[in-house]
Amino acid sequence: MSIKRSLVTIKGIKDGLVFRLDEQCDFDELVSELQDMLEHSHQAILSGPLVAIDVQYGSRDLTDEQKLALLDVLRTKRNLLVRSIEGAKLVEVRENAVLRTPITTMSGMVRSGQVLRQEGNLLFLGDVNPGGSIVCTGDIYILGALRGMAHAGSEGSEHAIIGASYLAPTQLRIAEVISRPPDSGEEQSSHPHETQMEFAYLKDGQMQIDKMANIARLRRDLNVFKGV
Question: Which residue numbers delimit the Septum site-determining protein MinC N-terminal domain (predicted)?
Fold first, then answer.
């Protein structure tokens, strides 16, 4: 009696999880097992707080459409933040605006009067309090509450985004576009009682807010995977 090998293995690391995908199996079979795993197993680590994950597919040659298909499956778990998809050659495919810029991970709390500045993309594990600010040349992902100010694309990138577990900022800024806080009585989120991650991005020069689960489709519309 043969034992079926697992096509997807999960390894815990200091700041998240690594999903390792089988390099040789049929892609549709791989996607099917990934869907089944997300729905029926490993619930102790795949449910609950937001967690950053890196996807490694080894020597497999994935098309842009297949990468997007994997992202769509992973986004069905609202607490998973896909940080990277990479092959054996370590060509990283980031689903943020500056695709080939690594993400720096930091943790702590940004208090009133403090300004955290970072080159490239930032994954911040903690809260940004009112009066506190984060300024990045790339994207900003906050696994915590954003109640202060965040400025992504500070050197002019209009494709940068700002994402947070709880998005209630005093100000959002992407490139040179600045959002105003909601008027008194306005809901800051269309789903204020939900804890799923949301992100801000620019569309036709205007600030927009959407669920993080929809980011893969946004990136596909912007053709960010072209040439990768």
Answer: 8-85
List per-residue pLDDT tens for the chain, 228 residues long.
444 568 988 888 777 788 999 988 999 999 999 988 888 876 666 666 667 788 888 888 888 788 888 888 887 776 777 777 787 654 344 344 334 456 888 888 999 999 999 888 898 988 999 999 999 999 999 989 999 999 999 999 888 999 998 999 999 999 999 986 544 334 444 444 445 688 999 988 899 998 877 776 666 555 444 333
- Please say whether the beta carbons of 29 and 7 come within 8 A: yes
- Pair 121, 192 in one domain: yes
Model pTM above 0.70 = no
| DSSP reduced 3-state for 31 | helix
Number of domains present in the structure of the chain: 2
Question: Of 45, 68, 93, which residue constitutes the final position of a domain?
Answer: 93
